[in-house]
Amino acid sequence: MAVEKMSIAKALNESLRLALDTDPKVLIMGEDVGKLGGVFRITDGLQKDFGEDRVIDTPLAESGIVGTAIGLALRGYRPIVEIQFDGFVFPAYDQIVTQLAKMHARALGKVKLPVVVRIPYGGGIGAVEHHSESPEALFAHVAGLKVVSPSNASDAYWMMQQAVQSDDPVIFFEPKRRYWDKGEVDTESIPGPLHKAVTAREGGDLTLVAYGPMVKVCLEAAAAAQEEGKSIEVLDLRSMAPIDFDAIQKSAEKTGRVVVVHEAPVFYGSGAEIAARITERCFYHLEAPVLRVGGYHVPYPPARLEDEYLPGLDRVLDAVDRSLAF
C-alpha cells in the first residue's frame, strides 16, 4: 500500500500526471496551463515533462477551448480542459450544453465524447465576481453531463482518474479554497465508484449533506455539535449528477432529519432537488422538514463581505438547531 500525505492541489497534479503517462491520447488544454502551470499550479511541470503537444497553452477563448476538445474527442483523444476560473465558463456554456452533452444521444450512442472540463470553483480566496462562483446546478440540470466535486485529497486523486477514464463528459468542479488542505492518499487503492456518496462522519440525530468545499464546514459543525451532546452524521455527496439518492435516503431514514449545505445560492440550488426527492422518498421517516443552507440570491460580493455571504459554522449550526427543535 502506497500512502502519501498531499494537498488537494498536489493530488490533482499527480493524478493528471498519471493520466498523461498512462494514455498517449490524454491531452491537457487551457489558458496558462503549460509554461505557468496554471493559476493555482495544478498543472505545474506537466508541459515540461510531456511537451507542448500534450499540455497545450490556448488563447483566451473558452468556447474555442471546449469546441476544440470536442473535435479532438471525436478523433479518439481524451482531452482535459481547464477553465481558469468558474465565472469564465459561460462563453463555453453553449458548446458544453448543446454539443458536449448532447452528442452521445444525437448519434444514438455511436459517438462518445470523453472530455473532462476542470473548473476551480467557489469562494474563500478574496477574489471578485467571476472568480468565486458556484455554478454547479446549471450543469447538473443538463442531461448528458456528469458533475462531480471532491472534498479531500484522496477523492481529488481518484475521482480525476475516474473522470478521465469515463466515456461521458465530466464537469469536474475543484474547490479552490481547499486546494492547500492536506490528506492521506492511497495511490494503489480506489476508494469507490465515482458517483457514490461517502459517510464522512457517523451520527444518529441529524444528517448534514454536502459536497466540495462545504464538507469541511459540516465536519467542523458536527464536531461543535457533539460538544453539546448532538450526534451529527455528515454525508459527502461527491457527485451532483448523478446524485446518490439511495445513500441520502438511508441516512435520512436513520436520523430522521436532513440539512443540505452548499456554497451556491439556495434559490434553485442543488439542495432544492435533494430536499424535494428526500421528502418524496422519506416522508414518513422525517421528523422535520429538509432544510437548506447556502449562499444568498445576489451577485457574488466584494472580498470584505465574503465571510457574510459564504455559509459558515454558525449558519450550519443554526439550521441544525432549527431542525432539532421540530
Could you describe the 3D structure shown?
- There is one protein chain.
- This protein has 326 residues and is an alpha/beta fold.
- It has twelve helices and 14 strands.
- It has helices at residues 8-22, 46-50, 62-74, 93-100, 103-106, 136-140, 153-165, 214-226, 245-255, 270-282, 306-309, 313-324; strands spanning 3-7, 26-30, 55-57, 78-82, 116-121, 146-148, 170-175, 182-186, 198-201, 206-210, 232-236, 239-241, 258-265, 291-295.
- It has a seven-stranded mixed beta sheet with strand order 3-2-4-5-7-6-12, sandwiched between helices.
- Strand 10, helix 8 (214-226) and strand 11 (232-236) form a beta-alpha-beta unit.
- Helix 1 (8-22) runs parallel beside helix 7 and helix 9 (245-255) packs across helix 10 (270-282).
- The N and C termini lie far apart (47 Å).
- The model has no long low-confidence stretch (mean pLDDT 97).
- Residues 6-181 form the Transketolase-like pyrimidine-binding domain.
- Pfam families: Transket_pyr, Transketolase_C.
- It is an enzyme of class 1 (oxidoreductase).
Q: Which secondary structure elements does this structure contain, and how are they paired or packed?
A:
Layout (H helix, E strand, L loop, with lengths): L2 E5 H15 L3 E5 L15 H5 L4 E3 L4 H13 L3 E5 L10 H8 L2 H4 L9 E6 L14 H5 L5 E3 L4 H13 L4 E6 L6 E5 L11 E4 L4 E5 L3 H13 L5 E5 L2 E3 L3 H11 L2 E8 L4 H13 L8 E5 L10 H4 L3 H12 L2
Parallel strand pairs: 2-3, 2-4, 4-5, 5-7, 6-7, 10-11, 10-13, 13-14
Antiparallel strand pairs: 1-8, 6-12, 9-11
Cα end-to-end separation: 47 Å
Indicate the structural class.
alpha/beta
Number of strands: 14
Q: Characterize the biggest β-sheet.
A: 7 strands, mixed
Percentage of helical residues?
Answer: 25-40%
Strand content: 15-25%
Shape: globular
Average pLDDT across residues?
Answer: 97
| Arrangement of strands in the largest sheet | 3-2-4-5-7-6-12
Helix and strand run:
EHEHEHEHHEHEHEEEEHEEHEHEHH
Whole-angstrom Rg: 19 Å
Which stretches are low in confidence, meaning pLDDT under 50 for 5 or more residues running? Answer: none
Count of individual helical segments:
12
InterPro entries: THDP-binding, Transketo_C/PFOR_II, Transketolase-like_Pyr-bd, Transketolase_C
Pfam family, one: Transketolase_C
GO molecular function: oxidoreductase activity
EC number: 1.2.4.-
